[in-house]
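note to self: the first set is below, dont mix up w the second
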Amino acid sequence: SEESVAAGTRRIRALTGDGTRAWVRRRDRLLASLESKLGDDPLAGLNRLQEERESLEKDLAELSKASLVQIRDDLLAHAEKIADISVFAALVDTDAAQLKELSDLIEEKARPAVILLLAEVDGKGIAVCKVSDNLPANAGVIMRALTSEFGGGGGGNRVFAQGGGLRADSLEGALEKGRETIRTALA
């Protein structure tokens, strides 16, 4: 190998003698191990594994999307209506990244809407609130009402807010507080 040691000065490192033989033996063992696990052509085996991984990731994403669509459809069937505005307030079984995606999927099908979704992730409660444009409700205000009473923190603007760190044992209470806050805002 070659490296710089000072301005205008290079250092060359090389293996010689027994060091070279030991290095070649290690490389040969590594190559033999790879060939036994991946077939005679390790590069082709690695490419195959990478393609399989990408295919599995794609399948997982499709299943995840299908699961979110099913949850969305269940929530759409049980929407509360307040003056022609669909209100969704639910505790769902999903992760943080999917919570926002689920709120987007719901709003695509039910506008105008106020959407409050809570979930438990790693022993803590998380929440997402989404409000369609031109509605009197404010997502940031709804989120602050939850986090001020049930722990955690968060915030956002009028149309989207998110929070985390809610006490997991108080998610049902937080959900009911969110419903009350939404009803008051839409009244």
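second set (the one i keep forgetting abt)
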Amino acid sequence: DVDDLETALDVLAGPDAAAGTAWSLDLPPARHAGIAEFKVAVWLDEASCPIDRRCRDLLRGAADALADAGAQVSDTARPAFTFDKAVDTFMHLLSAAEAGTWTLAELDEVAASDSPPAGELGIWHAALRHREWLSWHERRLQQRARWAEFFREWDVVLLPVTPTAAIRHDHSRPQTARTVEVDGVARPYEDTIKWMGLTGVAWLPATVVPVGRVDGLPVGVQIAGPFLEDRTTLAVGRFLNEALGGFSPPAGF
């Protein structure tokens, strides 16, 4: 539960032994004490990464619980960039971070081509030259600045974690050939990481709490907040945990 998350944050966050001689971490408290004081943006769907209807209904219920408790809730407030641009930045930087997955020969071959191999966009991104990586990192920094502007007005934003509840593992084909079903439509497997990439690429803190179940499987809401304001996201998570019933382990656990 949120108490466990707060304990883990207190134990794990901060400098390592080498850096601890020069600096320490002092995370600010939550922005508000009462849930009615919070301003909450709600971002639950995108045409390029749709959310399962049943999951979206549960996420909507979380937003409604905040509104019913007096929080100011907006379905239209957004940072000054598009979902697709942020996800594109995330995908490029994620693949570059995974460059060690491929051999140098494979990366050199892709880097010398004019277009990505069919179905292999990941290795195409992983083969970025350093100057190209710096360009994508600059896009990340620009998006971080837009998020900072956004959070001057809004305290947190509610988002999906993934488009569906947990899916069956599929190791029968390459990852780029896998799909995930959303409302009966086959979607690219990479959709499963786009919503967490939207916030993760900008280094935002996010708290995930359960909001219900679909086919017996838990669905969580992602509560993202301003950089280094983890305790603000935890405060909203604590309220939702209490309002919606919190975590209950499945049978057998």
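remember for set 2: The helical segments are 2-12, 53-68, 83-97, 104-111, 121-126, 130-150, 191-200, 230-244.
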